[in-house]
């Protein structure tokens, strides 16, 4: 009981600090390490979410939401490979283990190679080549603190090397998950990417993309389905992009001003915070997932061109202790990354 009370006090003060830092960084308006928002496994990509509000048999999802780390994931390892775009690729390895007295832990390494680039003089003469890479480590911890309440922390050192320039940052995630007595409803909340850049590329330090997320999931009683809804970027209401080529207020050739209606703007701003997904589980050996992001759709679509932008989908095959997952995120009409994840439990 004493240990649980100490944990509660620690989390309370940590959240106070987190909220203060989150709004301060949001107002700064300058963010770095957007790579923190990339999906790191096929299972997460299939749902179009990098924060899954549910206890699942997935090492990568649980490390991303450390409050869902549990004993069922003991000695599980997963390896992910992604061919992103134009010679860029991403790899990740996740491992989870339970220590009886300390709790549930997750360890991960995510690596992104942005490809090779030509090094030239100001006159265009080629004098060599260089590469650009990001390395992200995770040390996550999760534990039950009440009957239906779980807590998790995720410490993330980040290292970047772009030609002769390098950067070092440290980030922290704090998450909590509540599970209903029947287990069908599960709710998670998190504050992600708290921290700072210790060593910057240049003289000015960039801020980390701190995020507040809340998600809910529901397993249907009379159908083999799990429904997910996640709201992110909750520290700022209007996260719409400003595109000078597609302004929301236009002037016709006759001088008529066409303005976006307040109702349309309200719903557009609101839905950009939401992501939706569903798992379809016809058997214990097969699972199909699909997700949708309104924000990705609005930011990456091309007018008058049909595309599935904003949609993500994938399937998962299970056999004994093995799991093979494939997913595709319809990022843009001219290119979408494919994710492949292999998992094994010892």
Structure report:
The protein is built from five helices and 16 strands. It has a single domain, classed as Porin (Beta Barrel). The chain has helices at 2-28, 42-47, 59-64, 262-271, 294-300, and strands at 76-83, 89-99, 103-120, 126-144, 149-162, 165-179, 185-199, 211-219, 225-231, 250-251, 257-258, 274-283, 286-293, 311-319, 322-329, 338-345. The strands form two sheets. The chain has a 14-stranded antiparallel barrel. It has 346 residues and is α+β, with helices and mostly antiparallel strands.
CATH architecture: Beta Barrel
- Largest sheet properties: 14 strands, antiparallel, barrel
Could you estimate the helical fraction of the residues in percent? 10-25%
Q: How many beta-strand segments?
A: 16
The count of helical stretches stands at: 5
Q: Report Rg.
A: 21 Å
Please list the strands of the largest sheet in the order they lie side by side. Answer: 1-2-3-4-5-6-7-8-9-12-13-14-15-16
Structural class: alpha+beta
Strand content: over 45%
CATH class: Mainly Beta
């Amino acid at each position: 009981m004493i240990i649980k009370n100490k944990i509660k006090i620690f989390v309370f003060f940590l959240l106070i600090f987190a909220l203060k830092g989150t709004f301060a960084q949001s107002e700064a308006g300058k963010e770095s390490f957007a790579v923190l928002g990339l999906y790191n496994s096929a299972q997460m990509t299939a749902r179009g979410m990098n924060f899954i509000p549910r206890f699942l048999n997935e090492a990568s999802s649980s490390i991303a939401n450390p409050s869902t780390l549990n004993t069922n994931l003991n000695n599980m390892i997963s390896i992910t490979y992604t061919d992103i775009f134009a010679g860029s690729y991403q790899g990740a390895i996740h491992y989870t283990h339970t220590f009886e007295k300390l709790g549930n832990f997750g360890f991960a390494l995510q690596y992104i190679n942005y490809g090779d680039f030509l090094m030239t003089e100001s006159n265009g003469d080629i004098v060599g080549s260089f590469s650009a890479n990001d390395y992200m480590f995770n040390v996550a911890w999760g534990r039950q603190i009440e009957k239906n309440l779980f807590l998790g922390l995720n410490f993330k050192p980040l290292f970047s090397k772009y030609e002769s320039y390098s950067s070092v940052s440290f980030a922290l995630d704090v998450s909590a998950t509540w599970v209903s007595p029947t287990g069908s409803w599960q709710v998670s909340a998190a504050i992600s990417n708290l921290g700072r850049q210790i060593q910057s590329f240049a003289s000015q330090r960039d801020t980390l993309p701190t995020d507040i997320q809340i998600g809910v999931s529901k397993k249907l009683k009379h159908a083999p389905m799990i429904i997910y809804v996640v709201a992110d970027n909750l520290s700022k209401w209007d996260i719409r992009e400003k595109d000078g080529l597609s302004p929301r207020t236009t002037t016709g050739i006759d001088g008529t001003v066409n303005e976006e209606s307040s109702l349309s703007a309200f719903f557009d701003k609101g839905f950009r915070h939401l992501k939706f997904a569903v798992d379809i589980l016809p058997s214990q050996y097969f699972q199909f997932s699909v997700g949708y992001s309104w924000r990705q759709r609005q930011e990456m679509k091309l007018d008058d061109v049909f595309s599935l932008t904003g949609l993500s989908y994938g399937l998962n095959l299970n056999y004994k202790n093995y799991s093979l997952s494939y997913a595709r995120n319809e990022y843009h009409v001219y290119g979408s990354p494919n994710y492949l994840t292999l998992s094994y439990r010892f």
